[in-house]
Specification:
By secondary structure, this protein is of the alpha+beta class. The chain has 26 helices and 20 strands. The protein folds into three domains: about 290 residues, no CATH class; about 130 residues, Rossmann fold; about 130 residues, 3-Layer(aba) Sandwich (Calcium-transporting ATPase, cytoplasmic domain N), CATH 3.40.1110. The structure holds adenosine-5'-triphosphate (ATP), potassium ion and magnesium ion. The site of potassium ion has 7 residues, from α11. Its EC number is 7.2.2.6.
């Protein structure tokens, strides 16, 4: 057993050793760029374009001006053929830039999906049948099937270990090279298709049908197959479309004013004006920003099942964390057995072992290991004949009902006390002293009782994962409250809470208490994140706005959550929150920038178009552009090139500092609002200097 204990625990949290394989891929790798350039052309199909009304309008403008290049007087008044052609070309490039941004964002996900698909290819399994085992392909495995996986073999389907114990290399999925231990019972029994058994063997019960495995879902997600607009995105989209409609009406009515003022406005000029005024910059980058946000989460080894969850992270107020397996490593092992009430260690050990005989949890098994280590024995035959009472989060006890009528129980001290008291048994006077000592050391005390007698306490030891305190401090700076929720006793909880540096804790909590806490916070209008690893955390993970399951946890937890952290690091929530905030900020910043830009472009184009008829307007011509034609073309060129210039920002996100939402908003309004107003004046002027040479 010693090899097992010295091995890395399943929740191998070690930020330093996290694999860089996935992150080292360059942001704009050559292949991805090439593919995106082609995909950008495919996206010209109206079927895709209608989803983005801003860019669809630009595409229509391109088609109309192209027509005017061929038949200049199609709509009566005619601008020169070359002019229509140039406008048409710029509009084409504008749409291509926007499509390229989206294709580039998608391309990075696709590349990742391809490498995952490699993992999935051609998996074989030894399926257990009534007569032995047969070799089957992973595609034929169904929920409930049992397979045996031996040393060196790859696990063919998602499932739970029901027998055996093995160290498993999960690097294909997590990028983490250190193998993790998986065993039946407890919170560390789930295994994932595509991972490899490096030593020993396990019997696995398959928990997902073909096409529904974790890997399948992951591939679908990174490929963006399931990507839908988030509520925030939809709201912004509506605003942008309304704005576009207003400008469309303004521009369509302009020719009538033109007629009144006795100026002819050419169709190409009107289209150029419209394209400059509508929010094309944000319209072109919106989808890329969303995709890139999801992608950034994936790069941190977190799989998010929805963009909505990533965004919700940006507004999280409270984070609820489970203690064991989340804040601590979770391999709670028997460290000592302390008798009470004058009993001997041997007597306590015997009953503790009888009560743990059939307990498959790491806690239960560690009791038997403790006996072996101390050369103590217990009555196995008697234990075999008893009826096992498995551990339940509700009762916080486990044990065995012996054939002679004796009931053996071990469990949380308060639960055992209640159980004994209900039978009229005494509470040993030295019990509280012993429990307190264990709890104050951060350990979990389990009381052992037979019928109405308490024999002593099992000291389960667990370790807080390193670096928790600093990380929780960071969350506090972001204005996020951390609450640890545990089924353990208040003293242990307090010790671990202090050691880890969480803001608050709730002890002796049952699954429904976690749920109630989340509902209460949500009732106050706060967004709540929950991290957990156990089946008993599943309801809370589902209820939370952001549910992050540890990859080391159970299938139930992973299915209920809307994110899975492949590194099983509860403080990863910091990165996800940062990415969520960054996503919201990036979208806000680029929207501000885009609209401020349009205002500035207005000042470039309007004076140019009307100056000849209304000389007073020359006062507005503060930019002193070369000519009306140059002004329109320069503004239009600026409008196009600003999209690719902002692609890196859209993909990487704006600079993020752990500040409160209000501070961030103010800072962004200043930088991107002001910047958005000034940039076009400089940009258009510079372009005009070049364009002017040719006119
Ligand atoms: N195998 C077991 N047999 C008996 N009692 C157990 C066993 N495992 C845990 N307990 C007791 O039940 C309590 C609740 O355990 P559980 O693992 O459900 O905690 P939890 O609610 O998930 O919280 P956390 O995981 O944060 O400690 C433990 O604190 C311990 O006292
Ligand atoms: K625009
Ligand atoms: Mg737990």
């Amino acid at each position: 057993m010693s090899t097992v204990q010295s091995m890395k625990t399943p929740s191998s949290y070690d930020s330093g050793s996290r694999s860089e394989i996935k992150k080292s891929k360059s942001m704009f790798g050559g292949d991805i760029v090439r593919q995106a350039s082609i995909d950008a052309l495919r996206k010209f199909h109206p079927k895709f374009m209608v989803k983005n009304p801003m860019m669809f309008l630009v595409e229509l403008g391109f088609v109309i001006t192209l027509l005017l290049t061929i038949v200049p007087d199609a709509f009566g008044s005619a601008a020169p053929r070359w002019y229509n052609g140039v406008v048409s070309l710029i509009l084409f490039v504008t749409v291509w830039f926007a499509n390229f941004a989206e294709a580039l964002a998608e391309g990075r996900g696709k590349a990742q999906a391809d490498s995952l698909k490699q993992t999935k290819k051609d998996l074989w399994a030894q399926k257990v049948t009534a007569t032995g085992t047969i070799r089957v392909s992973s595609a034929s495995l169904r929920k409930g099937d049992i397979i045996i996986v031996r040393e060196g073999e790859t696990i063919a389907g998602d499932g739970e270990v029901i027998e055996g114990l093995a160290s498993i290399d999960e690097s294909a999925i997590t990028g983490e090279s250190a193998p993790v231990l998986k065993e039946s019972g407890g919170d560390f029994c789930s295994v994932t298709a595509g991972t490899r058994v490096v030593s020993d063997w396990v019997k696995v019960r398959i928990t997902s049908d073909p096409g529904e495995s974790f890997l399948d879902r992951m591939i679908a997600l990174v490929e963006g197959a399931e990507r839908q607009k988030t509520p925030n995105e939809l709201a912004l989209h509506t605003v942008l479309v309304s704005l576009t409609l207003i400008f469309l009406i303004v521009v369509v009515t302009l020719p009538f004013f033109g007629k009144y003022l006795n100026i002819t406005l050419h169709t190409a000029e009107l289209i150029a004006l419209l394209v400059c005024l509508i929010p094309t910059t944000i319209g072109g980058l919106l989808s890329a920003i969303g995709i890139a946000g999801m992608d950034r989460v994936t790069r941190f080894n977190v799989i998010a099942t929805s963009g909505k969850a990533v965004e919700a992270c940006g507004d999280i107020h409270t984070i609820i964390l489970d203690k064991t397996g989340t804040i601590t490593y979770g391999n709670r092992l028997a460290n000592d057995l302390i008798p009470v009430n004058g009993n001997s260690v041997q007597t306590l050990a015997r009953w503790a072992a009888v009560g743990s005989h059939a307990d498959e949890t790491p806690e239960g098994r560690s009791v038997l290991e403790w006996l072996t280590k101390h050369s103590l024995s217990y009555d196995r035959e008697l234990s075999e004949q008893g009826e096992f009472v498995p551990f339940k989060a509700e009762t916080r006890m486990s044990g065995i009902d012996l054939p002679d009528g004796r009931l053996v129980r071990k469990g949380a001290v308060d639960a055992i006390k209640q159980w004994v008291a209900s039978k009229g048994g005494p509470i040993p006077s030295d019990l509280d002293g012993v429990t307190e000592k264990i709890a104050k050391a951060g350990g979990t005390p389990l009381a052992v009782a037979v019928d109405d007698q308490i024999y002593g306490v099992i000291y389960l030891k667990d370790t807080v994962k390193p670096g928790m305190r600093e990380r929780f401090e960071q969350l506090r700076k972001m204005g996020i409250r951390t609450v640890m929720c545990t089924g353990d006793n208040p003293l242990t909880a307090a010790t671990i809470a202090r050691e880890a540096g969480v803001d608050d804790f709730i002890a002796e909590s049952k699954p429904e208490d976690k749920l109630a806490l989340i509902r209460k916070e949500q009732g106050e209008g706060k967004l709540v994140a929950m991290t957990g690893d156990g089946t008993n955390d599943a309801p809370a993970l589902a209820q939370a706005d952001v549910g992050i399951a540890m990859n080391s946890g159970t299938t139930a937890a992973k299915e209920a959550a809307n994110m899975v952290d492949l590194d099983s690091d509860p403080t990863k929530v910091i990165e996800v929150v940062a990415i969520g905030k960054q996503l919201l900020m990036t979208r806000g910043a680029l929207t501000t920038f885009s609209i401020a830009n349009d205002v500035a472009k207005y000042f470039a184009i309007i004076p140019a178009l009307f100056m000849i008829a209304i000389p007073e307007l020359s006062a507005l011509n503060i930019m002193g552009l070369h000519s009306p034609m140059s002004a329109v073309l320069s503004a239009l060129i600026f409008n196009a090139v600003i999209i690719p210039l902002l692609i890196p920002l859209a993909m990487k996100g704006v600079a993020y500092k752990p500040l409160s939402s209000e501070q961030l908003l103010r800072r962004n309004m200043l930088i991107y609002g002001l910047g958005g107003l000034i940039a076009p004046f400089i940009g258009i002027k510079l372009i005009d200097l070049v364009v002017g040479v040719f006119l």
